Amino acid sequence: MAEEEINEDYQAEILEYLSAFENSIGAVDDMLKTMMSVSRNELLQKLDPLEQAKVDLVSVYTLNSMFWVYLATQGVNPKEHPVKQELERIRVYMNKVKEITDKKKAVKLDKGAASRFVKNALWEPKPKNESKVASKGKSKK
C-alpha cells in the first residue's frame, strides 16, 4: 500500500514536470515561429551593429542550448561533449557585448562643467592691495 502511494506521488510529480516542459517547448516554438517569420537580413538591417551582435549571440546560444537538451534526451552526457565548450565561448562573447553596452550607458563626465565647479568652489584669498583700496574708497565717501 505504501508503494502505491509513492508511485502516485512520483507519477503526479513527473506529470507536473512533463506539463511544465510541454508548456516551455510550446513557448520556444512560438518564439521561433516569430523569429523565423522575418528574414534575417530584413531584421538585421533595422538594427545597429551592437544589436545585430546580440541577436546573433542569442540565436547561436539558443541553438546550442537546444542541442544540449537533445543530447541529454539521447542519454549522452552534454558536460563531456564539445557543445559545453561552445556554450562557454558564446557566454564570453555575451559578456563582452554586455560590457560594451554598460559602457555606453555609463554617465559621461563633462570636463568643462567639472572644472568650473571646482574652480568656483575653491577659496581664493583677496590680494592685500585690493582690500586697502576698497577701504580707502569707502572712507572718502
UniProtKB/TrEMBL annotation:
Gene Ontology cellular-component annotations: cytoplasm; exosome (RNase complex); nucleolus
Gene Ontology molecular function: DNA binding; RNA binding
Entry keyword set: Cytoplasm, DNA-binding, Nucleus, RNA-binding, rRNA processing
Protein name as it appears in the record: Nuclear nucleic acid-binding protein C1D
Entry-linked Pfam families: Sas10_Utp3
Superkingdom assignment: Eukaryota
Similarity field: Belongs to the C1D family.
Any one GO BP annotation for this protein: regulation of gene expression
Primary localisation category: cytoplasm
Complex formation: Monomer and homodimer.
PANTHER family in alphabetical order: NUCLEAR NUCLEIC ACID-BINDING PROTEIN C1D, SUN-COR STEROID HORMONE RECEPTOR CO-REPRESSOR
UniProt organism field: Myotis lucifugus (Little brown bat)
Subcellular location: Cytoplasm; Nucleus, Nucleolus
Function text: Plays a role in the recruitment of the exosome to pre-rRNA to mediate the 3'-5' end processing of the 5.8S rRNA.
